[in-house]
Design brief:
This protein is an alpha+beta fold. It has one domain: Peptide methionine sulfoxide reductase (Metal Binding Protein, Guanine Nucleotide Exchange Factor, Chain A). The chain is built from 3 helices and 11 strands; from the N terminus they run βαββααββββββββ. The strands form 3 sheets. A 6-stranded antiparallel beta sheet has the order 1-8-9-10-7-6. It catalyses: L-methionyl-[protein] + [thioredoxin]-disulfide + H2O = L-methionyl-(R)-S-oxide-[protein] + [thioredoxin]-dithiol; [thioredoxin]-disulfide + L-methionine + H2O = L-methionine (R)-S-oxide + [thioredoxin]-dithiol. Its cofactor is Zn(2+).
Length: 164
């Protein structure tokens, strides 16, 4: 089962709002159906017992909770060659294996495959399936075998080496 959702991202124009678009039709998001009848609050899970600003660094909070983007090449500080799994920094769900990580020269950590299965339509936002943390985007310009590039903010990840 996939450990994150891919949310369709689009530019809203001609005075339309996200709310008006949601009320026009149902939107399939990965494997979870978002119903327009539940309103915009249904788009994000919020656990009142979790104070994200206390749990996360300021950089992690801006990226994962406010959908920011980290400074390019921030990953260089965390570069490693260990085998293991990158987990969501918010909820610790496993997301990407280091074995599918590659360097496309963009300045952000990239992977050609995600942990689990998923569906996508166009340019998409990648969010954690368990806590809705913003992770990055996926593009169709990646290497074989998938042709996809999961471009991820490194502050949204927590690497755990594989146990020997």
């Amino acid at each position: 089962m996939s450990h994150f959702l891919i949310r369709f991202s689009s530019i809203v124009s001609n005075g339309a709002t996200v709310k008006s678009i949601l009320h026009q039709k149902r939107i399939f998001v990965g494997i979870r159906l978002m119903s327009p009848t539940k309103g915009l609050q249904s788009l994000t899970r919020y656990d009142q017992s979790t104070d994200w600003q206390r749990k996360l660094t300021p950089e992690q909070y801006v990226v994962t909770r406010e959908k920011g983007t980290e400074v390019v090449f921030f990953e260089k500080k965390k570069n490693h060659n260990e085998v293991g799994m990158d987990h969501c920094v918010c909820c610790d769900s496993p997301l990407f294996s280091s074995e599918v990580k590659y360097d496309p020269g963009t300045g952000w950590p990239s992977y050609y495959e995600a942990h689990g299965t998923w569906e996508k339509d166009e340019r998409t936002e990648i969010i954690c399936k368990h806590c809705d943390a913003h992770l990055g985007q996926v593009f169709d310009d990646g290497p074989v075998p998938t042709g996809q590039r999961f471009c991820i903010n490194s502050v949204a990840l927590n690497f755990k080496p594989r146990e020997k």
